[in-house]
Design goal:
The protein is mostly beta strands. The protein contains one helix and 13 strands. A hairpin with a 6-residue loop joins strand 10 and strand 11.
């Protein structure tokens, strides 16, 4: 592409950082959850929350001498499912989350994101059979814009907005979503850089939920595996807000989880 810029297919790393405490961020994870409060009818308080997915970098265009800057096009996708440990591991519900985005990162570390997100939510077959619950057709497609800014050493803040251009149940859904968060991360604090730690908080508000904030806090250890460009995180998470499953977004829940996350 010339002497000043390079193009790289499947770059293997990302210019826009993950949101560790965002429960909808594309990742692979297994969470053992205990719910202290749940409004979902006939759902147990002990559950597994399972995700499988991540981000795939397609193309990066970067300055020749600064590979960690420039522009990058990405795809992302995640299956997010909730399974009831008190009812034979019945699937309460699941969401298919996917989309694509274009990222930019500058010399200061500030990163921008523009893209499209899709969320298609479903009621689990076993839960529907046991309770008679029908699907509300919760599907949301939105334009999204985000910014991630380094603040101090190891500290980063971000903000994001989404505007839905396709809602399948307009009686229950509204267009706007806002999100913000803070993260402290030291990836190589222990054992000569073999392990680190982090803490993060995320707050998201939906117009369809009357702007009630959904708050998620997460903290734990990081094991970076740089040769395959992966971070393994082990930690605990607390959340108070609407259900993670879109079909049950009208119901409030509070939980603690122990979990493993793999940022792909």
């Amino acid at each position: 592409m010339g002497n000043n810029w390079n193009g790289t297919f499947s770059p293997g790393t990302h210019l826009y950082p993950v949101y560790p405490a965002d429960p909808f961020h594309p990742t692979t994870a297994l969470n053992v959850a205990s719910f202290s409060d749940s409004e979902i009818p006939a759902a147990g308080d002990k559950r597994y929350i399972f995700r499988i997915g991540g981000r795939l970098g397609l193309l990066r265009i970067s300055p020749a001498k600064n590979y960690d800057r420039g522009f990058q096009l990405n795809l992302h996708g995640t299956f997010l499912g909730m399974f009831d440990r008190e009812h034979s591991l019945d699937n309460i519900g699941w969401d298919g989350l996917y989309g694509f985005n274009l990222n930019w990162r500058g010399a200061s570390g500030t990163a921008l994101k523009l893209g499209i997100n899709h969320d298609s939510s479903h009621v689990g077959d076993e839960y529907a059979e046991r309770t008679g619950r029908l699907r509300d057709e919760y599907t949301r497609q939105e334009y999204v814009a985000g910014i991630s800014v380094p603040l101090y050493s190891h500290l980063r803040g971000y903000a994001e907005a989404g505007w839905a251009f396709d809602l399948r149940n307009e009686a229950l859904q509204d267009k706007w979503r806002f999100q913000t968060g803070l993260e402290f991360r030291d990836r190589d604090a222990f054992f000569n850089g073999q392990m680190g730690y982090y803490a993060a908080v995320d707050m998201t508000s939906f117009e369809e939920s009357d702007w009630e904030p959904d708050v998620t806090v997460q903290a734990g250890l990081i094991v970076p595996v740089d040769r395959i460009h992966r971070d393994f995180r082990m930690g605990v998470e607390y959340r108070n807000g609407r259900s993670l499953i879109g079909e049950f977004s009208a119901y409030e829940e509070t939980y603690w989880v122990w979990g493993l996350w793999i940022d792909l």
